[in-house]
Write a structure and sequence with these properties.
443 residues, alpha+beta, Endonuclease, Chain A, 8-stranded mixed sheet, 7-stranded mixed sheet, 17 strands
């Protein structure tokens, strides 16, 4: 395919003369805008916190120029301290280290004793949308420490874009999980940084052992993820970072589309198709293209009418549609709201599998063993319309089937919902579901 580095911001080209998906189902064209696919990447699926953290820490240790890390939740526990110490070591070695975390997601997980050594080592720390009480003061304190370090090193403290949090700032969260190292290696997926994702066999019952998926990428897509970090950093008030151009994408495997809301302005600019969000259209296009099988694993499964309609139409056509959700969610109201969709989905022939071995936090989808996506996106209004999110979609059979094999293993650890039994659930449960569904837009 013809692909280049043209287009707004150096992310993707605008020109494309190839086929476009039709409106009918089962058309087999999984991507509505093939020009966004960028070849020349290498992908590796990472399962669980233990494998992911080891790979991420190894990449951090290899950094020579830059480290960009953004996470929704950062804990000051044993796992968090491992990352803190790794970032401090690289910052003292002269690497440009930037850390961003969400003020709401990490509102009670960090303290000064954890953050101050990072700033003193020269790590630039930015608290995304610090509307939680005390976070603005903490942001200024960390910036003063960092600026003082820069002055002692003979450098000019950085200028920062003006950003004034509004009263509705809590509704705009940075839910991205991106680590970009030297513009050559990047990670994204659903895994935050903390002991919740640590291996229970190693750490025992003191950790929650959440099940999740992440992906390691080398190639042009790694630079695109680094650019997504830069844009979110710049537009939310961080010191200015220049957005680099992505090299010309090679017309070869592995073809990847980076899925990232590009800052506050990007939430509007990436709207497609009559006001529908870009990521929503990516999902729906791939679902409508399916010919044989759709497998979705999503921790907070609150699909809107358009996604539900596409899934149900495919199930009625004979496509096997399987949805994996946690049996015991960490957010009860989300679980109840998700349950409110079961009846119509089951009636259409969709299989619903509830994961029994702890909290399943993954956000992954595979279509026909040909197209796969992993990221931070939940199937809900918040991810599609409000949050900053990140992930990638790959049109690559080998990677898609590696993800599918993992999802099949997850299904084996699930309990399938029986439609007849579900229709006879207690009325109190039905009432909870109805109440929760009224708040689904805000969950």
């Amino acid at each position: 395919m013809a692909a280049g580095s043209g287009g707004r911001g150096g992310f993707w080209p605008l020109e494309w003369r190839g086929p476009r998906p039709s409106r009918r189902y089962g058309h087999g064209l999984y991507v509505s805008q093939p020009e966004r696919l960028c070849g020349g990447n290498r992908l590796a699926l990472l399962v669980g916190g233990a494998a992911t953290y080891e790979s991420m820490l190894a990449a951090i240790a290899s950094a020579q120029q830059s480290i960009f890390l953004v996470t929704y939740i950062l804990h000051s526990d044993a796992t968090g301290r491992r990352f803190r110490d790794a970032l401090i070591e690289r910052a003292r070695a002269g690497v440009d280290v930037r850390l961003m975390y969400d003020a709401f997601g990490s509102y009670d997980t960090l303290d000064d004793a954890f953050l101050t050594p990072l700033a003193e080592a020269g790590v630039a720390i930015h608290i995304f949308h610090p509307v939680i009480p005390g976070r603005i003061e903490a942001q200024e304190r960390l910036r003063k420490i960092y600026d003082g370090i820069q002055l002692r090193l003979g450098r000019t403290p950085p200028s920062r874009s003006r950003f004034a949090p509004d009263l509705l700032g809590f509704h705009r969260r940075n839910h991205q999980k991106i680590l970009a190292v030297d513009e050559r290696i990047a990670f994204t997926g659903g895994i935050n940084i903390g002991d919740d994702y640590a291996d229970r066999e190693e750490h025992g019952e003191r950790v929650r052992g959440w099940h999740d998926l992440h992906v390691r990428v080398e190639g042009p897509a790694a630079q695109q993820l680094a650019n997504a970090f830069r844009i979110a950093w710049n537009q939310s008030g961080g010191s200015h970072l220049a957005t680099t151009l992505v090299p010309i994408c090679r017309p070869e495997p592995v073809r990847v589309e980076v899925l990232a809301n590009l800052g506050f302005h990007g939430l509007r600019e990436r709207m497609r198709g009559g006001g529908s969000p870009w990521m929503w259209n990516v999902y729906r296009t791939a679902i409508r293209a399916a010919r044989e099988r759709i497998v979705i694993a999503n921790a907070y499964f609150l699909p809107d009418r358009g996604i539900r309609k596409a899934l149900m139409e495919q199930a009625r056509r004979g496509v096997r549609v399987q949805v994996i959700v946690p049996k015991d969610s960490d957010v009860r109201i989300v679980r109840d709201a998700s349950h409110s969709y079961y009846t119509e989905l089951l009636a259409a022939g969709i299989e619903i599998h509830e994961y029994r071995e702890g909290m399943m936090h993954a956000k992954a989808t595979v279509i026909d063993g040909e197209w796969a996506t992993i990221g931070s996106y939940n199937l809900d209004h918040r991810s599609f319309r409000h949050n900053l999110e990140a992930g990638l979609a790959a049109l690559d059979r080998d990677f898609a089937r590696s993800v599918l094999e993992q999802l099949d293993r997850d299904i084996a650890a699930c309990e399938q919902i029986d439609f007849h039994a579900w229709r006879h659930r207690p009325w109190k449960q039905r009432l909870r579901e109805w109440l929760a569904r009224n708040f689904v837009y805000w969950l």
